[in-house]
Specification:
The strands form three sheets. A six-stranded parallel beta sheet has the order 6-11-10-9-8-7. It has a four-stranded antiparallel beta sheet with strand order 3-5-1-12, with helices on one face. Strands 2-4 form a two-stranded antiparallel sheet. Helix 1 crosses helix 3, helix 3 packs antiparallel against helix 4 and helix 4 crosses helix 5. 42% of the residues lie in helices and 19% in strands. The protein has two domains: 127 residues, Quinolinate phosphoribosyl transferase, N-terminal domain (Aldehyde Oxidoreductase, domain 3); 147 residues, Aldolase class I (TIM Barrel, Alpha-Beta Barrel), CATH 3.20.20.70. By secondary structure, the chain is of the alpha/beta class.
Amino acid sequence: MTKTSLPPMPRLIVERAVRNALEEDIGRAGDITTDYVVPAETRAQARIAARASGVVSGLDAARAAFRMVDPELMIGIERRDGDAIEPGDTICHLDGKARSILTGERVALNFLGHMSGIATAADGMAKLIAHTKAKVTCTRKTTPGLRAFEKHAVRSGGGANHRFGLDDGLLIKDNHIAVAGGVTAAIDAAKSQAGHMVKIECEVDTLEQLAEALEAGAEAILLDNMPPAVLAEAVAINDGRATLEASGGITAETIAAVAESGVDLISVGWLTHSAPSLDLGLDIDFGD
């Protein structure tokens, strides 16, 4: 699946989040600036355009924002999630009541800018490791209430998704190991109850823990804060038995060396918690 063949986000998830955002913005009395300043009968055309280079994501949310404000607005989508954009490129056109366009503008741009910023960051990291087999993936370090959107944005940029929550994959971390009494004890306990569709991943800090996790039957192993040379040793020890994921403070400056060690996945938390918003804007013109 390519970036531009991404399936749409589930409508129920999109509409629930967008409705909450509109309710937060419109408040108790509506858009009083627009309602007081713009005559109800005024119509306009507008376009959302790129102010910076990047990768677009969030069109489902933007479209939902305008349609919830006014189902009669005409919305013409010019790009798809995952498309590269340059300054001046048109992302979508709008035609209808000026009030509706102005009221939906900020919520639509908030989703689009935030998600496009994440997609752009993911695209940049993916390109840095394109010469290797590794894939860049996100984490659960997401904005509360927006995880599905942020993970969709990572996929829009050519990245992969880690688990979506605590219920769709077992990831035994250092604190689980400490409480359970060791790597083997933690993995054995997980294997005794996990369903056949649930994979077990275990975090390790040392090559000794890696060997123990492999012996205990972990299907994936998170190599935490290991330098590239040690990661390469881990790849050799693993010998293809488990999926290996590197994690811990990985940046654009270090990701290539990490990928060249031979790991399968590289998790980058800042993609979702710190990627800057992409600069997009709405330009309005009056119609009939």
